[in-house]
Amino acid sequence: MSVDVGALDDFVVGEPRQLHVADKVLVGVRIDDEVFVLDDRCSHEEFPLSEGTVDLYSCEIECARHGAMFRLRDGEPMSLPATKPVGYYEVAIRDGRVEVFVP
Question: Which residue, of 21, 28, 51, 94, is most buried by count of CB atoms within 10 Å of its CB?
Answer without folding.
Answer: 28
